[in-house]
Amino acid sequence: MDLNRIGVVGTGSMGSIVLEAWLKANALSPSQLIISNRTPAKAEQLAEKYPGLAVARDNAEIARSASILVLCVKPLEYSLMLQQLSSALTEDHLLITITSPIRLEQLEAQVPCPVARVVPSITNAARSGVSLCEFGSRITEEHRERIFSLFSAISHPIEVTEGFLRVSSDLTSCGPAFVSYILQQMIEDAVKETGISHDAATYLVSQMLIGMGELLQQELFTLPSLQQRVCVPGGITGEGLSVLQGAIPGVFAEVFRRTHAKFAEDLEHVQSQWSSKVPD
Ligand SMILES: NC(=O)C1=CN([C@@H]2O[C@H](COP(=O)(O)OP(=O)(O)OC[C@H]3O[C@@H](n4cnc5c(N)ncnc54)[C@H](OP(=O)(O)O)[C@@H]3O)[C@@H](O)[C@H]2O)C=CC1
Ligand SMILES: O=C(O)[C@@H]1CCC=N1
């Protein structure tokens, strides 16, 4: 087993984002990585794009070849994946799950090695945004440092406690989908109300968003101070803002109730799938 090699299990949407972000950041070279995917063609396409990137024949091989395994499969796919990894897992491995509806103690009970969670965000594709870290009971200071170092190449890693993991992930990982939906509605309504072209409105809104990101990045404004500064007393913005003040409060409370309910449902499905497993 190569202690410096990282295995990415599952090269779907998020697995490939994390992998490609590391490669583009030159944080890891292709030869430091090995990948596996249920449908091998998807992994092979990535290997063609990045010469030197190895594709494991199966999950036992990836576990034999890499000491750190980043698990990028969906919650109900864990059970089978863990069975496939199990013959080659040792206490010297480090498993990093990127999904939230699997409890770390639950995972620890299935494997001989330390486990951690790092929930990435699509923003990590641009080496920005945060990743949310949670550490299992077997994690040492050395593991923490390794995990922080790996994920700081593509994000700002932040440690969160289990109780706040879900809401943090709603804000950072689901957030880009929520915000882009709202901005899309802004564009659609601008087109409908005024006849501006979709492309022009999209360009204007995208540039506005990038500019806002810069304002926050450079700490020139906070979200409230920005509203205050744009909203000239007796001016035009206030008229528009009052419509939003009537419509938006409470919407996100419902969003979070729904995401938390879905999370609880996913946890239960995983729990019942794992507990119905026939013992060896
Ligand atoms: N999308 C996002 O923005 C974020 C997602 N996440 C989490 O990431 C996880 C994965 O999501 P996402 O990438 O969108 O899902 P995808 O379905 O796109 O990717 C999952 C991948 O895992 C592969 N796979 C399934 N079982 C195995 C197995 N036993 N061995 C190897 N590979 C396997 C699948 O292969 P196949 O090609 O056959 O389908 C697929 O490519 C989810 O739990 C999600 O919560 C976390 C943060 C952000
Ligand atoms: O939609 C999902 O389930 C995942 C979790 C965080 C972002 N996407």
TrEMBL record:
Protein's UniProt keywords contain Oxidoreductase: yes
Domain Pyrroline-5-carboxylate reductase catalytic N-terminal: 5-100
Catalytic activity: L-proline + NAD(+) = (S)-1-pyrroline-5-carboxylate + NADH + 2 H(+); L-proline + NADP(+) = (S)-1-pyrroline-5-carboxylate + NADPH + 2 H(+)
Pfam families: F420_oxidored, P5CR_dimer
EC number(s) per entry: 1.5.1.2
Annotated pathway: Amino-acid biosynthesis; L-proline biosynthesis; L-proline from L-glutamate 5-semialdehyde: step 1/1
GO molecular function: pyrroline-5-carboxylate reductase activity
InterPro entries: 6-PGluconate_DH-like_C_sf (IPR008927), NAD(P)-bd_dom_sf (IPR036291), P5C_Rdtase_cat_N (IPR028939), P5CR-like_CS (IPR053790), P5CR_dimer (IPR029036), Pyrroline-COOH_reductase (IPR000304)
Major localisation: cytoplasm
GO CC terms of this entry: cytoplasm
GO biological process, one term: L-proline biosynthetic process
Keywords: Amino-acid biosynthesis, Cytoplasm, NADP, Oxidoreductase, Proline biosynthesis
Localization per record: Cytoplasm
Domain Pyrroline-5-carboxylate reductase dimerisation: 165-265
Residues binding NADPH: N59
PANTHER family registered for this protein in UniProt: COME OPERON PROTEIN 4, PYRROLINE-5-CARBOXYLATE REDUCTASE
Annotated function: Catalyzes the reduction of 1-pyrroline-5-carboxylate (PCA) to L-proline.
Annotated family: Belongs to the pyrroline-5-carboxylate reductase family.
Protein's name in the database: Pyrroline-5-carboxylate reductase
Natural source organism: Brevibacillus panacihumi W25
Gene field: proC
